[in-house]
Write a structure and sequence with these properties.
Length: 198
């Protein structure tokens, strides 16, 4: 226990007001998404707009691109969830679809990682690319209310804790720790709704 306290005291926490705002709206997004609340998308638009700036300054270029993607998906998600003619229900994809996602995501991760490490000054290009590529798939799954999006995000969020902590974005690393727990809760909640609907 003493070692843990010493480690925490030795960390130079680098929390800014801007990062704090981004974290607040990011938490609001994921909590509201777990509750199937449409206002999650408004919180997402605010948080990702701030994170575009933060990630670019941290030289996490794949993450910067991901935040831009998140912005457009948040707009799309809002309109998709607000369609009163045919409201989306939670569903699940077949295992073959997930195997295809894992294969395509892995190949794309290594390609992007190679390009970023060769042609830019990106930090941690493989891990940055991994979290980015699979977050794109998982975010699309949130928009379509696919249950297993939460399983993807549990893994992505756990890896992102290390990614952001290593770039001295400690508050964002803490955010991803919370994301991991909320993703577990989101999976349990959505699974319960899916079972009830079936």
């Amino acid at each position: 226990m003493l070692e843990l306290i010493t480690l925490i005291e030795s960390i130079d926490f680098n929390w800014s007001l801007l990062e704090t705002c981004a974290v607040f709206f990011s938490l609001a997004y994921v909590i509201l998404a777990a509750k199937e609340n449409i206002w999650c998308w408004a919180a997402a638009i605010i948080s990702v707009s701030i994170y575009v700036y933060i990630c670019y300054n941290a030289q996490l270029y794949a993450e910067t691109g991901l935040q831009v993607f998140y912005f457009f998906m948040a707009v799309y998600g809002y309109f998709s969830w607000s369609n009163n003619n045919k409201p989306l229900q939670i569903s699940e994809w077949k295992i073959n679809t997930h195997l295809l996602i894992i294969l395509a995501g892995s190949l794309t991760t290594f390609l992007l990682g190679f390009l970023f490490s060769t042609y830019t000054n990106a930090k941690m290009p493989i891990i940055d690319s991994l979290t980015t590529v699979f977050s794109i798939f998982a975010t699309y799954m949130v928009v379509k209310k696919i249950l297993s999006n939460w399983l993807y995000f549990i893994i992505i969020d756990a890896i992102s804790i290390y990614l952001y902590f290593s770039r001295e974005l400690h508050l964002t690393a803490l955010l991803f720790l919370f994301y991991t727990f909320i993703a577990v809760i989101g999976f349990i909640k959505w699974n319960h709704i899916l079972q009830k609907n079936e």
